[in-house]
Design a protein that fits this description.
With 181 residues, the chain is of the alpha/beta class. It has a single domain, classed as Vaccinia Virus protein VP39 (Rossmann fold, 3-Layer(aba) Sandwich). The chain contains five helices and seven strands, in the order αβαβαβαβαβββ. The chain has a seven-stranded mixed sheet with strand order 3-2-1-4-5-7-6. The longest helix is centred in the N-terminal third of the chain and has 15 residues.
Length: 181
Amino acid sequence: MRIISGFLRGREIKGYTIDGTRPTMDRVKESMFAIIQDYIKDSVCLDLFAGTGNLGIEAISNGAKKCYFVDKNKIATKIIKDNINKFEIQDKCEVINKDYLDALDYFKENRIKFNIVFLDPPYENHVITEIFKVLYRRRLLKRDAIVVCEYLDEDIETEYFEVEKSKNYGYKKVGIYVPKK
């Protein structure tokens, strides 16, 4: 697994064999980042369910100002830290070893808001709608923010968000959502 674009292009990300993780395939990631490229420069990102940190590191490589990486798996957060240190991007990253809801509480308490949120939860959890509600109700998104979701067959309710773009990649789906005005 490699970084596909930006100043870290071609560098290898370690950790794709961590139990319980499912890294985003390169062709899916490449297409996803082509779609969101205009949102990345100087953005504050959240890589929720970060796994290896693949998506957040790609965002940093493409000009994001800061990325928060959240995963409850201690092995995953150690690998993310190792990747961040290897790429010497520590000043742009914060790694948080918490459950996603606890992390969202932390962001609310510390008044941290995001331009881009990457959501790639375990497919069987079906938590994207719940996370949308929390992001919206706790006002964790900056103006003109986007939420990038990778999922399988989840029925996502869009009471607070609307689909800006959606694309299928075999059995996977990627949706770009924006808060309703």
